Amino acid sequence: MRPRLLDLFAGAGGCTEGFRRAGFEVVGVDIEPHSDYPGELIVADALDVLADIAFLRQFRVVAASPPCPRYSTITPAATRDQHPDLIGPVRDLLRAGGGVYVIENVPGAPLDHPVMLCGRAFGLRVRRHRLFESNVFLMSPGCACDATPPIGVYGDHPEDSHFLRPNGTERGRRAQTLAEAQTAMGIDWMTNWDDLTDAIPPAYTEHIGGQLIDALKTTEAS
Predict the structure, then answer these.
(1) How far, in Å, are 7, 42, 135, 221 from residue 23 at the CA level?
(2) What residues pair up with 134 in beta bridges, in sequence order?
(3) How many domains does the chain have?
């Protein structure tokens, strides 16, 4: 049987699909329904679910991707305090559950000794650096960014060819169509632009999930 993994703040399932490919049976939780989510999705507040330790213990691993605007470089510094700071509370609840956990977020987020994954290291057109914290030792293939301009999958549905940071510097060329964004991310099931802009490429969690599977097997064998 596949080990079970709970994916909190799951959105339309970018992380979910990667964990599934790695060998997990995944159940997602998100506060909004997503009709194209690739599996079983519980529509609920992730913090309420985290508070139910008996429910968490039905899963070998609990993964969480708290909202990132408070830490993101595309959020103007003057408005960051308007966004929730959930990493600390989420970490406390995950540790209280006592099992294996993973927290994902953007560079700059206050994660504890995370590894960083880069889309270019997985052959993707996006750069999309993301951090992963776990109470299991994780490894990263490192950053593979080069001079090749990345494809940006950000913001509103593309209206022009470029996307700027709040300080006016350019983040690269923005994807011009949904299909281009899907290809750049390695995601073929999401049909909503906002879901794609929020998503994690499944290649990331397939990489992380493979390491978690190995750690679970090692624990069982010891």
Answers:
(1) 14, 20, 19, 18
(2) 102
(3) 1
What does 178-210 look like in DSSP terms, one character per residue?
HHHHHHHHT--S---HHHHHHPPPHHHHHHHHH
Predicted confidence (pLDDT) per residue in 127-177, tens digit: 999 999 999 999 999 999 988 888 988 876 554 555 555 555 555 678 888
In the chain, the amino acid numbered 99 is G
Residue 50: half-sphere exposure toward Cβ, Cα within 13 Å: 26
Query: Within 10 Å of residue 171's Cβ, how many Cβ atoms?
Result: 16
Query: What is the CATH number for 34?
Result: 3.40.50.150
- Torsion 149-152-158-160 (CA) sign: negative
- The answer to whether the beta carbons of residues 116 and 77 sit under 8 Å apart is no
Element (H, E) at 60: none
Q: What is the DSSP string of 132-155?
A: EEESS----------SSPPEE--S
Strand 25-30 to strand 61-64: parallel, antiparallel, or no bridges (unpaired)? Answer: unpaired
Residue 139 CA, chain-centre distance (Å), reads 16
The residue behind tokens 């996006």 is: 126
pLDDT digits (tens, 9 = 90+) for 72-95: 777 677 787 787 789 999 999 999
| Domain limits for position 143 | 4-221
Q: Record the pTM.
A: 0.91
- What tokens does 107 get? 């560079």
